[in-house]
Design goal:
By secondary structure, this protein is an all-beta fold. It has no helices and 13 strands. The two termini are about 10 Å apart.
Length: about 110
């Protein structure tokens, strides 16, 4: 699978090979992102995520690509004004700072 244009935070002229990106299931409540060197993850299922475990992510930015409709709930350690509702092929970037996650882009469709 290739992304030809994902967001202004990424070079849109490059085709990105997404075949090696891990999928993280959205769960009702907190999710933990694998610490395997990747910074972009597919997120599946249709649950509301209320927090993301910050351990090991301080100062790093991650990209979450939706494979289904799920949401990020503003509050807890997610600092996303008004929350965020994903749809398939939407990408959002978050940066972890002081244990909280902040949205760093305006999500766009592929």
């Amino acid at each position: 699978t290739l992304f030809s244009k994902v967001d202004t935070c990424v070079d849109a002229s490059v085709n990105y090979d997404t075949s090696q990106i891990l999928t993280v299931a959205s769960v009702a409540g907190a999710i933990t992102l694998p610490k395997n060197g990747q910074t972009v993850f597919f997120v599946s299922n249709t649950n509301a995520i209320t927090s993301i475990t910050p351990d090991g992510w301080e100062g790093k930015t991650v990209g979450l690509i939706a494979t289904a409709a799920w949401s990020l709930v503003d509050g807890s350690n997610l600092k996303i004004a008004g929350g965020y509702t994903a749809a398939a092929n939407k990408l959002i970037f978050l940066t972890c700072a002081n244990g909280d996650w902040y949205q760093v882009n305006t999500p766009t469709a592929n």
